[in-house]
Amino acid sequence: MTKLPISATVICKNEEACITACLASLDSCAEIVVVDSGSTDSTLAIIRDFIARGWPIRLIERDWPGYAKQKQFALEQAKQDWVLSIDADEWLDNDLRRDLPRLLQAAPEVAGWRLQRALTLFGRTTPAPRWAKPERILRLARREKVRFDEDLLVHEGLLAEGESLDARNGLLRHERALRLDAQLGKEITYARLKAQQRIEKGKKPSLLKLVVNPPLYFIRVYVLRRMFLCGIPGFIHAWTGAIYSLICEALHYQMWFEKNRKS
């Protein structure tokens, strides 16, 4: 297979359940940069098996500095003209893989492509249907025109210098479907980081956001993104997001109170 001038970048830790599908979907990439931050399961063994079979993987083991900083580090190791930032629990479906050569032929003023990202929710064996409006996230871009904002503690994303277009063929599949008790643990971590980020920027908590944002989040996900098409799993997913929003606003208030009480 002719390799495409793409450096795929993956950060990981203890991703033995997902990393095989992720790496296998990157077979057309000329380079795959994997940055591991201390896996203790079989993740590293799986990656090294790919390397032993001739896959163009550069494995770097590095301490964890935070999401944005780790992803920016991985980006800086890339050598190809284009970079594909992909999480270890994601993979490219066949339609998206076939469309990659066309996407790379974009006009020079196009900095990158927003890929359609489809979730497979806990309780389902297939991704949410296209009618459920997949997220569109900038993931494929010209290496010299993108970066991560290293000041962000969570919800980091590529920032592009130039135009970004929507890729309409294929899906970036997200396959980690966690049961609610496990997912809420992650949501609490993300909410704490987001609240901490706001505090560090001097943002004050808002009673209006505390009251309004959680139900609005539910409406946005369940109705506007049509997660009602996913049945009970979609309902749970939308409320999980609303709970995340509530925790984030509540932690922002509590951390602000704690900070000012000490000062």
What is the C-alpha radius of gyration, as a whole number of Å? 19 Å
The biggest beta sheet is recorded as: 9 strands, mixed
Report the CATH C-level class of the largest domain. Alpha Beta
Portion of residues in helices? 40-55%
Low-pLDDT sequence parts: none
* CATH topology group of the largest domain: Spore Coat Polysaccharide Biosynthesis Protein SpsA, Chain A
* SSE series: EHEHEHEEHEEEEEEHHH
Number of strands: 11
- Any idea what the CATH architecture of the largest domain is? Alpha-Beta Complex
Secondary-structure content class: alpha/beta
Strand content: 15-25%
Note the total helix count: 7
In total, the number of domains comes to 2
Let me know the CATH homologous superfamily of the largest domain: Spore Coat Polysaccharide Biosynthesis Protein SpsA, Chain A
Euclidean distance between termini CA atoms: 62 Å
- Compute the average pLDDT: 95
Give the CA-based shape.
Answer: globular
Descriptive notes:
- The chain is an alpha/beta fold.
- It has 2 domains: 4-174, Spore Coat Polysaccharide Biosynthesis Protein SpsA, Chain A (Alpha-Beta Complex), CATH 3.90.550; 180-262.
- It is 41% helix and 23% strand.
- The strands form 2 sheets. Strands 1, 2, 3, 4, 5, 6, 7, 10 and 11 form a 9-stranded mixed beta sheet that branches. The chain has a two-stranded antiparallel sheet with strand order 8-9.
- Helix 5 packs parallel to helix 7 (231-262) and helix 6 runs antiparallel to helix 7.
- The longest helix has 32 residues, at 231-262.
- The mean pLDDT is 95.
